[in-house]
C-alpha cells in the first residue's frame, strides 16, 4: 500500500527534527548547559562538561525525534529545550561574564 | 537486546540501515584510518628506522635548549616547546607571540646535541614538516580531519562520529541475540546467511568499543569545529585564547625582569620522579624572565588513565602545581574531559590496549562494509549497483592508498623526504584504485584491489631497505624490535590480502547482478 500524505508528512517532520533540528538544539543545549553550570573548583566545568555531554544530548534528541509515536510532541519537546537554553544564553550575555578562573 | 514494540523496532532497523548506507563509507574511512592511527607511534618507529635507545626527553636537555634560545632572535623566545621527533631526535619549537602572523624556528636536535635541521619562517609554514615522521603524521591527520581544511574536516569526522553512535545504539537495540551473535558464524551456510553472521559477529564484538569511540571522537571533533568557538563566545567574548588559558591554567602576572633560567635537567628529573612516568612534552614560557614557567606533561603512570602535568617556576625551578587533569585543580569536568584521550587512543594499558583497540577497529570496519553489502543484497536497481561498486573501490582502495602513502614516503627518503612524498603516494594510489574500480568488471574489482594491496605491502620492507633504512641485523644489534616486527607485521597483512584475493577471484566468476550480495 503506498504511503499516505499524512505518513509522508510524518517522515518529513521526523527527518527535519532528527537532522538539522537535533543539530541546532544540541548546539543551543551545549551553550545553555555552559550558562547554567557553576564554574567548579577549577573554573572549567562550564567548558568541559557541555563538550563531553554533546554526543549524549544529540543522541537523545535524535532517537526521540525518530521514535516518539507523535512527531508533534517530539517537536514541542525540542522547541521547549531550545527556548530554555536560548533564555539561559540571553541571561548570560545580559549579565556578568562567567566561568571565572580561580 | 531491548524488547520494543514492532513499530519502534522497524524504525530502529531503518535508522541502522540508512545510517550505515548514507554515511557508511565515510564511517568506514574514519574508523579504518583510526585503526591505523592507533599504532602511529609504532609505525613512526618502524618507518623512521630509529636505532637510538634513549627517548629524547630523558636525555640531558639543558645545554642544547640553552643554545637554541640564545641563538634565536629575542622576538622568537616567547615559548619553547620540546617533544620527541622521529629517529630519536629532539624537536625544539621556538615561537614569538601568538597570532595569525606568528613566526618561529623549528630545530631537529640529534642525540649528541648537533642541530640536524633548522626551519624558520611563519609558524603555519614550518609546522608539521618533519621528514622522518611524515608517514605517522600523515596517517594521524588523515584520520583526524581526512585532509579537509579545518574546521570543516573536524565537522566531517564529527558527523561520522555521530553516525557511528546512531548505528551502534540502534544496532544494540535491534539485535535479538547479541550474546549468541558473538560466537555464531555458519561457514557452510548459503552466502547471504554467512555474510549476515559475519556482520552480526563483528558488530557485536565491536559494539561497546564503537560507542566509546563514537562518543570520544565526537567530543574531539565537535570541540574543535563548533564547541570551542561557541563556548568561547559564551564565556570569554569570543576570545579562544582566554578559553584555552582557563583549561591550561592562566599565565602569571607579567614580569619582564631578566632572570636566570632554572636548570632544565633538574626540573625534568624531578618531574619524572613525581609523575612516575616519562615526560612526553615540555613547554618553556618566557624563558630568561622572572615570570618564566616550565610545564612538563607526563605519560600516565602504570595503572592510571591520565598523566601528571607539572608546572615549575622557570627561574627558580620550584614546583608550583601538580595537576592530574584539565584545570589547575581536580574537578568533575576536568576529569571527564581528561578521560576522552586515553579512551579514544587506547593507550591506557600500553601495547596490549592499543592492539585491542586496533582489533576492535578492524571489527568495526568489517561490520560497516558487511552491513552496506547486506543492505545492497536486498535491492535490485542501478543506484544499488553504483553503491556496490563504490563500496568495493573505497573498501579496498583505502588500504591500497595507505600502502601507496608508505611507498611514497620511502621513495622520497633518499632525497630528504617530507610530507609531500607521502601525500603524493597516497593520492596516486587512490587515483589508480578509482580508475581500476571504474574500468574493471565489477566482479574483478575486489580481487584486483586486494591483490594490488597485498603486492604493494609486500614490497614495503624492500623499499624501506632500499631507501637506506637499517636492516634487521643492525636493528636487532641495537636492540630495536620496531624495525623487524614492523616488517613482519606488514608482510603478514600483505599475505592476508593476497590470501583473500585468490579465492575471491575464483569465486566471483559469475556476473554481478544487483539484488544479489557480492561476497
Automatic annotation (TrEMBL), chain A:
UniProt xrefs under InterPro entries: TAT_signal
Could you tell me the superkingdom of the organism this chain comes from? Bacteria
Transmembrane regions listed in the UniProt entry: 12-35, 47-67, 74-93
Is Membrane among this UniProt entry's keywords? Answer: yes
Query: Which keywords, in A-to-Z order, does the entry hold?
Result: Membrane, Transmembrane, Transmembrane helix
What's the name of the protein?
Uncharacterized protein
From TrEMBL, chain B:
InterPro entries in the cross-refs: PepSY-ass_TM (IPR005625)
KW Transmembrane (keyword) present: yes
Report keywords, A-Z.
Membrane, Transmembrane, Transmembrane helix
Highest taxon of the lineage: Bacteria
Q: Which residues cross the membrane?
A: 12-40, 152-179, 200-224, 355-377, 389-412, 424-441, 448-468, 488-506
Q: What is this protein called?
A: PepSY domain-containing protein
Q: Which organism is it from?
A: Lichenibacterium minor
Amino acid at each position: 500500500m503506498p504511503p499516505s500524505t499524512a505518513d509522508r508528512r510524518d517522515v518529513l517532520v521526523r527527518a527535519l527534527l532528527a537532522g538539522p533540528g537535533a543539530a541546532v538544539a544540541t548546539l543551543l543545549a551545549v551553550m545553555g548547559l555552559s550558562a547554567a553550570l557553576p564554574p567548579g573548583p577549577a573554573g572549567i566545568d562550564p567548558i568541559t562538561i557541555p563538550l563531553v555531554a554533546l554526543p549524549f544530548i544529540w543522541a537523545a534528541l535524535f532517537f526521540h525525534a525518530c521514535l516518539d509515536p507523535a512527531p508533534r510532541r517530539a517537536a514541542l519537546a525540542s522547541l521547549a529545550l531550545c527556548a530554555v537554553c536560548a533564555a539561559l544564553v540571553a541571561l548570560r550575555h545580559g549579565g556578568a561574564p562567567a566561568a571565572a578562573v580561580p | 537486546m531491548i524488547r520494543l514494540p514492532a513499530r519502534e523496532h522497524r524504525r530502529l532497523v531503518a535508522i541502522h540501515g540508512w545510517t550505515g548506507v548514507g554515511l557508511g563509507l565515510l564511517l568506514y574511512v574514519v574508523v579504518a584510518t583510526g585503526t591505523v592511527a592507533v599504532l602511529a607511534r609504532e609505525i613512526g618507529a618502524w618507518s623512521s628506522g630509529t636505532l637510538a635507545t634513549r627517548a629524547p626527553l630523558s636525555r640531558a636537555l639543558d645545554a642544547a635548549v640553552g643554545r637554541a634560545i640564545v641563538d634565536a632572535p629575542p622576538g622568537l623566545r616567547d615559548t619553547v616547546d620540546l617533544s620527541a621527533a622521529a629517529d630519536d631526535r629532539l624537536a625544539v619549537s621556538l615561537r614569538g607571540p601568538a597570532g595569525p602572523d606568528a613566526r618561529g624556528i623549528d630545530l631537529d636536535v640529534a642525540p649528541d646535541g648537533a642541530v640536524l635541521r633548522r626551519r624558520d619562517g611563519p609558524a603555519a609554514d614550518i609546522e608539521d614538516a618533519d621528514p622522518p615522521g611524515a608517514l605517522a603524521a600523515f596517517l594521524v591527520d588523515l584520520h583526524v580531519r581526512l585532509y579537509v581544511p579545518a574546521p570543516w574536516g573536524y565537522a566531517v569526522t564529527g558527523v561520522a562520529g555521530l553516525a557511528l553512535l546512531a548505528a551502534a545504539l540502534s544496532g544494540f537495540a535491534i539485535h535479538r541475540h547479541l550474546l549468541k551473535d558473538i560466537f555464531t558464524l555458519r561457514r557452510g551456510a548459503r552466502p547471504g546467511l554467512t555474510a549476515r553472521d559475519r556482520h552480526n559477529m563483528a558488530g557485536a564484538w565491536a559494539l561497546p568499543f564503537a560507542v566509546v569511540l563514537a562518543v570520544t571522537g565526537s567530543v574531539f571533533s565537535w570541540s574543535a569545529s563548533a564547541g570551542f568557538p561557541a563556548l568561547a563566545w559564551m564565556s570569554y567574548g569570543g576570545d579562544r585564547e582566554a578559553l584555552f588559558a582557563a583549561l591550561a591554567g592562566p599565565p602569571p602576572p607579567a614580569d619582564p625582569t631578566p632572570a636566570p633560567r632554572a636548570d632544565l635537567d633538574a626540573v625534568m628529573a624531578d618531574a619524572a620522579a613525581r609523575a612516575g612516568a616519562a615526560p612526553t612534552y615540555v613547554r618553556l614560557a618566557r624563558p630568561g624572565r622572572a615570570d618564566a614557567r616550565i610545564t612538563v606533561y607526563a605519560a600516565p603512570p602504570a595503572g592510571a588513565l591520565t598523566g601528571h602535568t607539572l608546572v615549575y617556576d622557570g627561574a627558580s625551578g620550584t614546583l608550583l602545581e601538580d595537576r592530574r587533569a584539565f584545570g589547575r585543580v581536580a574537578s568533575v569536568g576536568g576529569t571527564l574531559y581528561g578521560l576522552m584521550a586515553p579512551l579514544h587512543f587506547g593507550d591506557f594499558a600500553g601495547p596490549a590496549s592499543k592492539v585491542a583497540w586496533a582489533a576492535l577497529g578492524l571489527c568495526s570496519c568489517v561490520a560497516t562494509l558487511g552491513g552496506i553489502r547486506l543492505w545492497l543484497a536486498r535491492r535490485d536497481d542501478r543506484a544499488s549497483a553504483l553503491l556496490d561498486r563504490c563500496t568495493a573501490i573505497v573498501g579496498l582502495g583505502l588500504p591500497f592508498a595507505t600502502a601507496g602513502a608508505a611507498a611514497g614516503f620511502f621513495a622520497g627518503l633518499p632525497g630528504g623526504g617530507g610530507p609531500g612524498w607521502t601525500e603524493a603516494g597516497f593520492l596516486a594510489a587512490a587515483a589508480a584504485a578509482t580508475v581500476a574500480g571504474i574500468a574493471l568488471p565489477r566482479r574483478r574489482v575486489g580481487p584486483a584491489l586486494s591483490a594490488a594491496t597485498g603486492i604493494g605491502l609486500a614490497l614495503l620492507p624492500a623499499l624501506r631497505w632500499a631507501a637506506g633504512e637499517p636492516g634487521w641485523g643492525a636493528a636487532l644489534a641495537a636492540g630495536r624490535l620496531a624495525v623487524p616486527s614492523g616488517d613482519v607485521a606488514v608482510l603478514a597483512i600483505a599475505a592476508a590480502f593476497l590470501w583473500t584475493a585468490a579465492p575471491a577471484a575464483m569465486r566471483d566468476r559469475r556476473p554481478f547482478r544487483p539484488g544479489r550480495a557480492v561476497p
